[in-house]
């Protein structure tokens, strides 16, 4: 981002050395997803400004070659580029870490990535590295960076014109940053299908020769910049005076503004936590994005100025989905943003997607309901048919969409099919008469699976249980949640679920299902209710209640 301080002419940028570009790139702050974070290295220099990390501590000893050996602090004075990681008990090269490019072929060098900890052969290793070509090149880049930093500072003080250019460019940059932040805050995309990086001045004759389509949409960001130019002549004039290779509207600059803004916001959230009570709780959920990459979203909940705040911290890409991998990823992320895990007093995880497949009956029923929703939602005619089938009801309802991770949506969906069971059967029957063979076949298959006594019984059981926990689920997600009320409501919910685990409660529920079946007038056959059959059904019902009860007892968040 520093390059926007001085506008470059076309010739200047073409003559700019590859070395200076690499120096400028490597001097930026390392992000959470970079190489060091992935390798669990947090206690060495994060940028060039910090200098090498050289702690003077009692270094741990290890048995190497039959002797207890450790790192010696005297190596710092002989090799000023050394830095030591307490987490890894290893040494790294400060120059090579920050001034070796990704495509140099040396990024797997041990003093750059993993560190070196063979204290028996450390002398030979350091001497060999100190005389290597990669190290010498990195040292020259570091010296060039120091020199350029000092020279630039002197030039800024001496050159009045340069000062004016810097101020002008900063004003332009502020407006561009506001445009990016506006798109981000409104949750709209920045880029278009075809995007011209240069701002178009409709009054410029040179632009007329480029034959740019005036009706072309260049994306929200570029179009917003154009709108600012129409409303503010001063901004348009300043932007058009910039050289064509330094307009600062490219996709790279847009992404850089978003990344820098993300870091600033993240730091402000962490500062607000630390200046407040310094205690917090985390809310974690994982899901796939559109590119089928597993991501884990982390939110934080804390008190600041006597007010409860919930803030989104970021996404983490997941390589593994078992409990240890998730826990390690969370701890590394919190460490990287300077939040002490010891001050985390609460954890909240979503278990609805796990619960839905725990019992086979529930899994099958929810699968059927999802299939019916998909069947009627992919055609406007079918959707209308399902609405018209509710003509005997006071109000026509749409089928709620099922969501794997939201208990509220589960309850809404189950309750709909309970109160509109007869209407759904009627609509599916109509679809079986369709002239489209595929549609008719799908409808027959769904009808055969849906219109069964077991399916209706499962829906009634789920409706009772989800109704019991729905108020708790809704309350736990409110911003004004009170801990004492939470505990009371959880205990009441647990007691209510516990009271449902009786044969009398199940018999009442069973009779309700039989009554509903009789109202359908022979659409569903009632099974023979011999003792063994009832015992199996009662066992399944108790299993429902037991699972929900154990979930509540463990304090799982919904």
Structure description:
This protein has 558 residues and is an alpha+beta fold. It contains 23 helices and 8 strands. It has helices at 10-15, 18-26, 35-38, 74-78, 94-99, 122-130, 133-158, 160-185, 205-208, 220-231, 233-241, 251-275, 323-336, 352-355, 360-377, 380-388, 407-419, 421-432, 437-450, 453-476, 483-499, 503-519, 531-553, and strands at residues 62-64, 67-69, 82-85, 90-93, 280-288, 294-304, 307-317, 344-349. Strands 7-6-5-8 form a 4-stranded mixed sheet. The chain has a two-stranded antiparallel sheet with strand order 1-2. Helix 8 packs across helix 12 (251-275). 21% of the residues are buried. Mean pLDDT is 77; it is low at 1-39, 204-212, 352-358 and 552-558.
Structural Rg: 32 Å
Distance between the termini: 43 Å
Proportion of helical residues: 40-55%
Biggest sheet, spatial arrangement of strands: 7-6-5-8
- Please report the total strand number as a whole number: 8
* Continuous helix count: 23
- Helix/strand-derived category reads alpha+beta
The average pLDDT is: 77
Shape: extended
**Major sheet, described briefly?**
4 strands, mixed
Beta percentage is: 5-15%
Low-pLDDT runs of 5+ residues are: 1-39, 204-212, 352-358, 552-558
How are the SSEs placed, and which strands pair?
Elements: H1 10-15, H2 18-26, H3 35-38, E1 62-64, E2 67-69, H4 74-78, E3 82-85, E4 90-93, H5 94-99, H6 122-130, H7 133-158, H8 160-185, H9 205-208, H10 220-231, H11 233-241, H12 251-275, E5 280-288, E6 294-304, E7 307-317, H13 323-336, E8 344-349, H14 352-355, H15 360-377, H16 380-388, H17 407-419, H18 421-432, H19 437-450, H20 453-476, H21 483-499, H22 503-519, H23 531-553
Parallel strand pairs: 5-8
Antiparallel strand pairs: 1-2, 3-4, 5-6, 6-7
Helix pairs in contact: 2-7, 8-10, 8-12, 10-11, 15-19, 15-20, 16-18, 17-20, 18-19, 20-21, 20-22, 20-23, 21-23
